[in-house]
Amino acid sequence: MVAASGRRRRWNADDVPDLTGRTAVITGANSGIGFEAAKVLAARGATVVLACRNPAKARDAVDRIRAVAPEGDVSTLEMDLNSLASVRKATDALVAERPVIDLLINNAGVIMLPYGQTEDGFEQHFGINHLGHFAFTGLVLNAVLAADAGRIVTVGSNGHRMGKIDFDDLAFTRGYKPLRGYGRSKLANLLFSYELQRRLEKAGAPARSLAAHPGGANTDAGGFGGDSPARRKVKQVIDRVPNPIVHSAHKGSLPIMRAAVHPAAEGGQYYGPSGLLKMTGRPVLVTSNAASRDAEAAARLWEHSERLTGVTYPI
Hints:
- The chain has about 325 residues and is an alpha/beta fold.
- It is about 40% helix and about 10% strand.
- It has helices at about 30-45, 55-70, 85-95, 125-145, 180-205, 230-240, 250-260, 295-310; strands at about 25, 45-50, 75-80, 105, 150-155, 210, 270-275, 285.
- Strand 1 (about 25), helix 1 and strand 2 (about 45-50) form a beta-alpha-beta unit.
């Protein structure tokens, strides 16, 4: 978009179009970039479902969204990506009520956890950040395909550049370090997003799969620091202090929203901040590393993900 002065202005939340009649589902939307995205989408008329593991925090998020978007149609869905049983139960409830989903944002995630396993025995970063979303997306995909032009946006991270997937040790029993676990899960997110787009194209499906990352967003990823009123005040102070590699959760949500709603966004694209180290700045098209674009590795990861989750895709 070009400003009156002739200079191209920065894409921002004001560019989100009217979304009346469209349904958006966002995982982990009770705080951080997921909450910021939900707030804007609701204000633009979308029906928004907050898929969260903590019902109390999700209800509080709904109240905060309605404070700025009183007419917003916002509801909650209890889902814990730590448990495939919870994912399946949540999916059954969701598609029964929302048979058409226009926008799915796979946002929830954990970071820098000590070694631990999910309810199903997966390393936590890989199980929650990747496998939980892989299962959820596959189980709701028919509802996305029922939309005129559904979009699936998977939230990645600059951390994917530190990731390496050892297919002989997906349980990460050797050489585990929290940062390696996180990086591996974010690499998996991008491999999944790009492979999903390839499969949608091969099937001739109208839906699109994109990815985006928030850069250095000031959030409570993984639940660290809590989400108390006091913590929010601290975050507000931090957000007002200029920092070349950290920006607000709202600004961090803009690449995700651009991938989700921009008319020109295409399947297989990756959005992120434009500034220093791709940590802050306006939301633009960015590139991910070569490992994330490895189609052979992506297909192999897909096969393992289907086996581990028991979820096969209807395409």
